[in-house]
Amino acid sequence: MNTIGLLRNRRPMGWRGAVCLVLTMVLGGWGAAAQETYQFAQRDTMALYLDVYRPDSGSVTTFEGVAKPAVMFVFGGGFVSGSRSDATARRWFDRLTAEGYTVVAIDYRLGMKGYRMGKGLLGANKALDRFLSSQQMGVEDVFSAVSFLALHPELGVSTDNLVISGSSAGAIISLASAHAIDQGLTEGLPEGFAFKGVMSFAGGIISKHGAPRFSHQPCPILLLHGTADKMVAYKHFGLMRRGIWGSDHIASDLEKKGFNYSIWRYEGLGHDVAAYMNVVWDVEKSFLEKNVMQGIPCQVDALVDDPSLPTWKAWGRARTADIYQNP
What we know:
Mean pLDDT: 88
Order of helices and strands: HEEEEEHEHHEHEEEEEHEHEHH
Oligomer: single chain
Shape: globular
Strand order of the largest sheet: 1-2-6-5-7-8-10-13-14
CATH architecture: 3-Layer(aba) Sandwich
C-alpha cells in the first residue's frame, strides 16, 4: 500500500462492521465532507492512520486576515479503547469544518489495553509505570503524525499552524506533548516545531518525578475540567511524587509564572466534560480567535456552575476502576 495514498478498496466489513457503520451514521451523521485517510507510521505490527477533514466549501478559512489553524484531535478511551472516528468527535469535526478549520484525527497505540489494575490507591500506584508508558507512546505517535504532515506538504496541512486537542486520555497525550516540547524532549519532531495551541477536555499529565511544571511560556492552553471528575483527576491523584496532575495543578503552575492560559472549571461535574467539544464551542471559538490567531496573551480562570449543562450517567459517574477491570 502506498503510504501517502488515499486508502481505497478495503476488505469487506462484515456484519459487525456494517452495524458500526449504521451506528456512526445515526449517531454522528456522515460527518464532515471529504475525508482522506493516510498511514503515518508503522509500530511493529500496528499501522497508525490519520484522517483529514477539509473545510466546507464556502466556509471562511481566515480570521482578521490570519489563516485558521488545523486542529489535530487525539481521541479518548482510557488508553484502552476509542477511535479517531468517534461519533461524538465527528459531530465536532462537522462544526469545525463548517467554521473553516481543517481537522486531523489520529490513531495512537493503546498502552493499557488488557491491563487489570489492582484496587484503590495502591493498585493505581503499581499501575503508574504502565500509565506513564501509555502516555509516552501517545506522545511519540503524535510526534510521528506531525512529522508525517511536515514531510508531505502536498497534503496542505501546515505544521506551522497546528493546534492539538484531545479528550480524556487524548487530552493527557495532548498536554504531555506540549510539556515534552517545553522540556526539550522533541525527538521525532521537525526542528523548531511548536503547537499553536492546546485544547484539553478533561486532561492532565502523568509523572513519576513529581508535579510537572512548564519552564517556558508554552503555546496558549485551554483547560476544561469537571471539579468532581473521578476518571482523570481534576487536581492530583497518586502517592508522593507519582501520579497524575490535572487541570487545576497545570493552571496553578502557569498562573504563578504569569504564563498565558485559560481554565474553565465546571462545578460538580464529573468526566462529562471530556465529551464537551460541541457543548462549549463559544469558549473554544474565543480561544482560537483571540489567543491562538490574534496572539492576545491573557489569563482566564472561570468557575462555571450551570445546571443546564448536559450530563451523561456513563460519563459523569465514570471511575478508573470501571475501565481497568479491577479483580
